[in-house]
Amino acid sequence: MKKNLFLIGMFATALTFSMTACSDDDDPTPTPTPTPTPEEQDAKVLDYNATNAAAWGNYMENVARLLKADATTLYNDWTVSYKGGDSFADIFKAHDGRESNNSAFNALEDMIDGCVDIASEVGSTKIGDPFNTYKTDPEEALYKVESWYSWHSRDDYSNNIRSIRNVYYGTTDGTVNANSISAVVASVNPELDAAVKAAIQGAIDAIMAIPQPFRNNINSKEAQAAMDACGELEDVLDEDLRGFFTGTATVNTDAVLDPVVAQYVDAVVVPTYKQLVDANTALNEAVTAFRLNPSNAGFQACANAWLAAREPWESSEAFLFGPVADKGLDPNMDSWPLDQEEIVNILKSQDWSAMEWSGEYDEDDEAIASKQGVRGFHTLEFLIFKDGQPRKVN
Length: 394
Fold this sequence. Notes:
Layout: E1 2-3, H1 38-42, H2 53-79, H3 88-94, H4 104-134, H5 138-143, H6 153-169, H7 181-188, H8 190-208, H9 221-247, H10 254-292, H11 296-314, H12 323-326, H13 329-334, E2 335-336, H14 340-349, H15 366-372, H16 376-384, E3 385-386, E4 389-390
Parallel strand pairs: 1-2
Antiparallel strand pairs: 3-4
Helix pairs in contact: 2-10, 2-16, 4-6, 4-9, 4-10, 6-8, 6-11, 7-8, 8-9, 10-11, 11-16
């Protein structure tokens, strides 16, 4: 998730929850119940209806188109050519004297850094920001919860932690590959290997123990426990795992680490991005079909496709470096929060250029940030979901 601090507009649509799509322990009463602003009360455009149906479908399709394009760009950067040169996969594996990556250990550091960063983000930002804000402003805390339109927050966060597991295991299926960080650690320090695995699973379990939906249980003891578990995972990765490689000369060599780096690229990063392309292609197709023939079944198909496309993205957040960062593809696809006012303007104007920017990416450029806040997964999530369920056409 790219935290877009420039954009502060939030959706405050009236929420009436249903338990149909959720587990038995779901609380159907929103806590707190947001109060719509006067503009929102007057602007029927904030909900799908007969008047805005065509514009709504067009907006969905254009956001899905951009998601597919960004996913394809990211995959091609890693597998075909990055900035006109070798593929980023080859660049990363070669570490052939480039300033930022001139040894297999430098590549390993990038891998560990990515894992540390997402463990910290899940615990201190994705869960921690709403949790801490709740103490002084419960309503504002709700708006800090990522993926609350679909009630998919816990799944997003747990998939973020699974991205760490995938990096550590060298696979995407939960098995440990012989050419993995885990295998190298276990060959010298099996106790540390067991501790890293336990911390990863502990964070996943703690996140999934938060009562569903998270947006109704922000201030729960389970949310605090999940934050603590993510903090423990961050410490194990940043201190113990990093310290192991820094202080163990026998494993800190290209001969040992080159196969680990290659396995990471070929069996984790590239397949995850391929899945991202395929899932966003299917999402785009589902959205196009809905635009051409709006129906409740079509909204359901779009919701299913969005959930499927979301999984590989969240499972890639342990490697948010390289093209995904340099080209602004992370905030293109995953900016949060959204710019409510501009989304309403786009629905009215149908000006799709308001979502697109060009030139070199600069994360401090507010003009670029404003365009990123009206596209991506979360804009499409809002257009597809309401109260944790697919929207209805009637």
